[in-house]
Structures are given as structure tokens and as C-alpha cells.
Amino acid sequence: MAAATEKRPEIIELARGLNHVPMCEDYERMVSGMIIYTAGHDTSILSRRKFVEFGHPVFIGDDCWIGGDVVILPGVTIGEGCTIGAGSVVTKDIPPFSIAMGSPCKVRKTIPSAEEEEKDPNNPYRNLVREDRDE
């Protein structure tokens, strides 16, 4: 299945009453089962009874890979070049070029940007050419 992005909204399943559409940049890889929440409520029982809810946008940067069954909570930004491990619950922002996983999701390591990889003469992907791509 192709990645769901704002550029291909026909493959994003929107919940009834959704008021914030997740913003996704280019080259994301999103695996099935991922859930992006953009709304929630306070823990107050009275606020639930009175249907007090909030909405916060979610932003996913360029070149991200989001694993299967990941849950992303309202207001989270996942920076450019991140990989989020399968089954993670993302509760806070993830800085660019991070590999993060867990529940709650935590940064485990950082990785170089594509531009930094291009400059590395020992990178095995530096001169790789894929003829089936338009790049």
C-alpha cells in the first residue's frame, strides 16, 4: 500500500468528526495499523461528560519510516529522516534524524542526513543507482 500523505488523501481513513488532518511530507513509509490521533480530552470526568475535547495537529517530516502498529498522539512532530519502531507509542516530539522506539517512544540513536551520507566515501549506498526510480 502506498504511503498516506496529504498529497494522496484518498488513502487516509479519516475518523468521523476529525478536525485536524495529519501533515506528512515526501518519502514517508507508513506500515499498516498505524494510528494518528489529533484529538483528545482532559482526564476530568466532568470534562468528558460535557464533551470538552481538544485538537492538536500532527506533523511528520520528509524521509520518515513509521513502523507497523505505531500510535502517534496529538500535537506530536516527528522530524525529518526519523525511523519509528513497530508498536511504538509516540507521546512527544522526535528530533530530526532519530531512530526511536518503545512505549513511550524514546530516541535510541541519531543517524546522518542523506546529504551527510552522500559526502561519506565509505557509504555503500552513495553510488547506488536504481533505474526504476525517477530521481
TrEMBL record:
The keyword rRNA-binding does not apply. Pfam families: Hexapep (PF00132). GO terms for molecular function: O-acyltransferase activity. Residues 111-135 are annotated as: Disordered. The keyword Transferase applies. InterPro entries: Hexapep, Hexapeptide_acetyltransf, Trimer_LpxA-like_sf. Keywords: Transferase. It comes from the Eukaryota. Transmembrane segments: none annotated. SUPFAM superfamilies: Trimeric LpxA-like enzymes (SSF51161). Belongs to the transferase hexapeptide repeat family. This is Nodulation protein L.
